[in-house]
Amino acid sequence: MAPERIGYITRVQSFSACHRLHSPDLSDEENKQVYGKCNNPNGHGHNYKVEVTVRGKIDALTGMVMNLTELKRCIEEVIMIPLDHKNLDQDVPYFGKVVSTTENVAVYIWDHMLQQLPEGLLYEIKIHETDKNIVVYRGE
C-alpha cells in the first residue's frame, strides 16, 4: 500500500483597501503614538497580497488536496467581495469593533475561510501589506 501523502496548496490573491488604525480604547494622543502616520484621520490604503494555504491528504483518485476552482471560489467570497476596494473600517462590520491592523485582517480572513472550507484543511493566511511588512496567521 502506498504511503499517505500530504500536500500544501497556496493560492495568491491581491486586493486594495483603505483603513485608519485607530482604537476607541485609546486617547487621540495615544493613537498617534501607537499608530503614527497610519492614524491619519483621512485614512490610507494598501494593495494587499494574500496567500491562502491549505494542507491535506493528496487524494489517490484525483491527485489533489482540493480542487483549485473551489479554493478560488472561497477566496472570492471571503476576500474579494467583502474587502476589495472597500474602506475596511466603514464597509466591513467586523472592523467596526476591531482595529483594522493587518494582523486582524488575517484573523478575519482565517475565521471566514474556516466557514467555507472543509474542516481541517486551512493551514495558513499570509498577508503582504507592503513589500517589507508581512503577517502570517495559522489560527493560533
List keywords for this structure.
140 residues, 31% helix, 5 strands, alpha+beta, five-stranded mixed sheet
Structural write-up:
The protein is an alpha+beta fold and 140 residues long. The chain has a single domain (6-137), classed as 6-pyruvoyl tetrahydropterin synthase/QueD (Tetrahydropterin Synthase, Chain A). The protein contains 4 helices and 5 strands. A 5-stranded mixed sheet has the order 3-1-2-4-5. Helix 2 packs across helix 4. It is elongated and about 65 Å long. 19% of the residues are buried.
Helix percent band? 25-40%
Strand arrangement within the widest β-sheet reads 3-1-2-4-5
Query: Helix tally?
Result: 4
Q: What proportion of the residues form beta strands (DSSP E)?
A: 25-35%
What's the CATH H-level superfamily name?
A: 6-pyruvoyl tetrahydropterin synthase/QueD
Q: Report low-confidence residues grouped into runs of 5 or more.
A: none
CATH architecture: 2-Layer Sandwich
Shape descriptor: elongated
Radius of gyration: 17 Å
N- to C-terminal distance: 35 Å
Largest sheet: 5 strands, mixed
Overall pLDDT confidence: 96
DSSP, total strands: 5
Question: What is the total number of structural domains?
Answer: 1
Question: Helix/strand-derived class?
Answer: alpha+beta
CATH topology: Tetrahydropterin Synthase, Chain A
